[in-house]
Automatic annotation (TrEMBL):
UniProt keyword list: Elongation factor, Protein biosynthesis
Signal peptide start-end: none
Residue ranges constituting the Elongation factor 1 beta central acidic region eukaryote domain according to the UniProt record: 94-119
PANTHER family per UniProt: EF-HAND AND COILED-COIL DOMAIN-CONTAINING FAMILY MEMBER (PTHR11595), ELONGATION FACTOR 1-BETA (PTHR11595:SF21)
Superkingdom in the source lineage: Eukaryota
GO molecular function annotations of the record: guanyl-nucleotide exchange factor activity; translation elongation factor activity
Identification of the protein by name: Putative elongation factor 1 beta'
InterPro entries: eEF-1beta-like_sf (IPR036219), EF-1_beta_acid_region_euk (IPR018940), EF1B_bsu/dsu (IPR049720), EF1B_bsu/dsu_GNE (IPR014038), Glutathione-S-Trfase_C_sf (IPR036282), Transl_elong_EF1B/ribsomal_bS6 (IPR014717), Transl_elong_EF1B_B/D_CS (IPR001326)
Family matches, as Gene3D superfamilies: 1.20.1050.130, 3.30.70.60
Location of the Translation elongation factor EF1B beta/delta subunit guanine nucleotide exchange domain: 128-214
Homology family: Belongs to the EF-1-beta/EF-1-delta family.
Organism: Maconellicoccus hirsutus
Transmembrane segments: none
């Protein structure tokens, strides 16, 4: 596949997924991440959102990601990515191949054409947001694993839970930081936070740490 086709494939693939495989970051994400030599731009918002999220983990954290096998669709994507060009060239494209100005212009035209075709064939884009929530417990004796389980038990049409981690806040207390992807027309953030706060034996408060349209 060409660079344009690779980007188009990955953008479409991640349009309805938070991760390459499953609902938690895994070694499958690391494999695909390592195939990208430069950070994607907001011209491919789904790739950009996924790339930024996976890169937020440290190298040690990535090593602890669960092992997951790539499905045939993604495996073919990795096998078909363009091979690197001569090592003495200076410009490196997104997937490791070199290009001169003429090739860069050609790729730009291909991307614009692919975008126009996609926009003309597909229905209106569903507005989504990526939200990072800080869920704070009452004290250091709160069972944080159980809190995570209870938060994830909330099911709403248009809501997908992502990765979570515990973040120290002081005095031995840790807060649960959890990511979710929501469809803006279906999920009210206020309603979601209220549902989380209903677990009053575990949850003291819920704050929005980050809110990004995707």
């Amino acid at each position: 596949m060409t660079v344009s086709e690779n980007l188009k494939f990955l953008e479409n693939y991640l349009s309805e997924r938070s991760y390459i495989e499953g609902y938690q970051p895994s070694q499958a994400d690391v494999l695909v991440l390592n195939a990208l030599k430069l950070a994607p731009t907001k011209a491919t918002p789904n790739v950009y959102r996924w790339y930024t999220h996976i890169q937020s983990y440290s190298a040690d954290e990535k090593k602890k990601f669960a092992q997951k096998s790539l499905n045939s669709e993604v495996s073919k994507f990795l096998d078909d990515k363009p091979a690197p060009a001569a090592a003495d060239d200076d410009d490196v494209d997104l997937f490791g191949s070199d290009e001169d100005d003429a090739e860069a212009e050609k790729i730009k035209e291909e991307r614009l054409k692919a975008y126009a075709e996609k926009k003309s064939k597909k229905p209106a884009l569903i507005a989504k947001s990526s939200i990072i929530l800080d869920v704070k417990p009452w004290d250091d004796e709160t069972d944080m694993t159980e809190m995570d389980t209870k938060v994830r038990s909330i099911e709403m049409d248009g809501l997908v839970w992502g990765a979570s981690k515990l973040v120290p806040v002081g005095y031995g207390i840790k807060k649960l930081q959890i990511i979710c992807i929501v469809e803006d027309d279906k999920v009210s953030v206020d309603e979601l936070t209220e549902k989380i706060q209903e677990f009053e034996d575990f949850v003291q408060s819920v704050d929005i740490a980050a809110f990004n349209k995707i």
